[in-house]
Amino acid sequence: MMAAQALAEAAVLEDKYAVAFPFFGAERRGAPVLAFTRIHKDKIYSKTQVYNPDCVVVLDDSLLQTVDVAFGLKKDGVAVINTRDKPWELDLGLEVKTACIDATSIALEILKAPITNTAVLGAFSKASGIVGIESIERAIISRFGEKLGEEVGRKNAEAAREAYDKTIIGRSLGIKKLEPKRQWLPTYQELPIGGALRPRKTHAGLVGPGSFIENKTIGWATFLPVRDREKCVMCLFCWFYCPEGTISRVTDRGDLITNYDYCKGCGVCANECPTKAIEMVRSGE
């Protein structure tokens, strides 16, 4: 959301009108969320979700496997993706102008954390031309500096400039066809009486308590735990402390396994391991 706000502020610095707002699904750290920014030379009165964007920005390329990120994107639009791949290596289901930047590596180098939103703004500036990089830098320093301190603002502006210089622009492939995400939009007759929740099956899948088992979260992780079996003493501290219950014991071989489908890469297991048998490794490596 702060990236959307910084982009809007950058547009205002160039005497444009802008509004920015988020859309939350599961409101918890690491969950995929949407944020929208409208920019125009005239006053903006619409406050609804943007359904046919001129530009789509994706901060995590793992979403490309599960979400039709180009859905609704105009044919002359732009896709900005945080990825190590080149534009012509990506299949978005739509042949469109695409800008690729390894924002995660830039963030790890400059910010020492996988916080990619400001770096991606630099790529957006280069690919779209809607807002200049100088305005992006000023807005980042203002927005992030106000909340997190001047040094943090300056570092984030540096990440945006670095991304601007390293962004690769080309055209994506338009081969695959992703089905629109299924949604359960109940009528008032279907809503639980009194707001009581219970597990139930719908045409969109399982909803209610326990429905997390249908939502794989491996794509949320920047780092994943890797266990060294030689160092592991089977103390089960990792099993006990895992907040998602992703670690289980294989009794017939006296081993522990992690279900990466639901591991969010929080690092609690590595932090609690007394023998340092668990190392957090960059996802994909």
What is the topology?
Layout: H1 2-13, E1 17-23, E2 34-40, E3 55-58, E4 78-82, E5 97-101, H2 103-110, H3 117-128, H4 133-148, H5 150-166, E6 168-171, E7 200-202, E8 205-207, E9 223-227, H6 237-241, E10 247-250, E11 255-258, H7 268-272, E12 278-282
Parallel strand pairs: 3-4, 4-5
Antiparallel strand pairs: 1-2, 5-6, 7-8, 9-12, 10-11
CATH topology of the largest domain: Pyruvate-ferredoxin Oxidoreductase, domain 3
Count every beta strand, where a strand is a DSSP E run of 2 or more residues: 12
Radius of gyration: 21 Å
In percent terms, what proportion of residues is strand?
A: 15-25%
- The CATH class assignment of the largest domain is Alpha Beta
Could you state the order of secondary-structure elements as H and E?
HEEEEEHHHHEEEEHEEHE
**How many strands, what sense, and barrel or not for the largest sheet?**
4 strands, mixed
Order of strands in the sheet with the most strands? 3-4-5-6
Give the number of helices.
7
Q: In which range does the helix fraction lie?
A: 25-40%
